Input
Amino acid sequence: MNVLKKQLIKNFIKLAVIKNEPGILMLQVTHLSKLSDKYKVYENYVIQAVQMLGGTGEVLVDYKKSAVTINYNVQSVTAQKIYNWVQVIIDVALNNLEFIEKYGEDQTEYTVQKLKEVLLKKIKVFEQ
Output
């Protein structure tokens, strides 16, 4: 994939911490409010990817505020680790964008399974 295109997309979904209290991490996701309904159907898969990290709980997406709230167990994981994991998820998606574009719409379960395999490999290293 074109490196410039990847960087433009990454800038489009830039993250910023807007609330960091014990057990609650709220992230501002640039341009989330402008996300097309066509892509909102994948929300559940993204939430599942976030929850792959041990200690994460409920994930709430607020499109109007361009915010994502992640509840977590402070005994199991830190807000910084969650933030870093979300960045890993974004990177995996970007690195597999051509694959997602090719199979995502018609073979959603296949695509999700392949991406989950990549994330499982990443999380083994990430959680050490």
Notes: The helical segments are 3-12, 37-40, 43-51, 79-95, 97-103, 108-126. The longest strand covers residues 15-21.
